[in-house]
Amino acid sequence: MKRQALFFLLLCFGCGHRKAPAVHISLVNNNQSIQFKGLDPAIMGEVTRNASPGVWENLIPVYRMPADTDLKDYQPIQPGNYQVKDNVIVFTPDTPFTKGHTYFMRYYQFEGGTRPWDFIGGRKRLGSVSHQDLVFRD
């Protein structure tokens, strides 16, 4: 009986939901760059201090949206430069965004939402990282 009560208590503590931060993107610098806001400043500081410059390309890559959106997981990453300024990440592509084309930034949500019930209920699988595609158009 004590084991069942302990399991239930642990499950309840694990069910507390931490709200993911609201993230936003917008075009800046005459539509030559995009700005990414909303990532936890502590995470941004840690990544900026302890990682190679190319790490942002792996954490929040930018892609050009294909005509067939079913193929968007197979697109090459848009190369460019990431800069961190005042808790904002600014991405400037190597080649300018094409007027009238759609792009998306894939934001991997590492910081939370990993409750035991997510795995038990089948919403998450061990080893999976959820993401959100933030779409923008030049």
Can you walk through the features of this model?
This protein is an alpha+beta fold and 138 residues long. It has four helices and seven strands; from the N terminus they run H-E-E-H-H-E-E-E-E-H-E. It has helices at 2-14, 41-50, 55-59, 116-120, and strands at residues 24-28, 33-37, 62-64, 80-85, 88-93, 102-108, 131-137. It has a four-stranded antiparallel sheet, with no helix packed on it. The longest helix is centred in the first third of the chain and has 13 residues, at 2-14. The radius of gyration is 18 Å and the shape is globular. The termini are far apart.
Keywords:
7 strands, alpha+beta, 4-stranded antiparallel sheet, globular, 138 residues, 3-stranded antiparallel sheet, 24% helix
Strand content: 25-35%
Largest sheet: 4 strands, antiparallel
Structural class: alpha+beta
Rg measurement, Å: 18 Å
User: Are there runs of 5+ residues with pLDDT below 50, and where?
Assistant: 1-18
Measured between the Cα atoms of the first and last residue, the distance is 61 Å
How much helix, percentage-wise, in residues? 10-25%
Number of distinct helices: 4
Q: What's the pLDDT, averaged over the residues?
A: 75
Specify the overall morphology.
globular
Major β-sheet strand ordering: 1-2-5-4
Tally of extended strands?
A: 7
Order of helices and strands: HEEHHEEEEHE
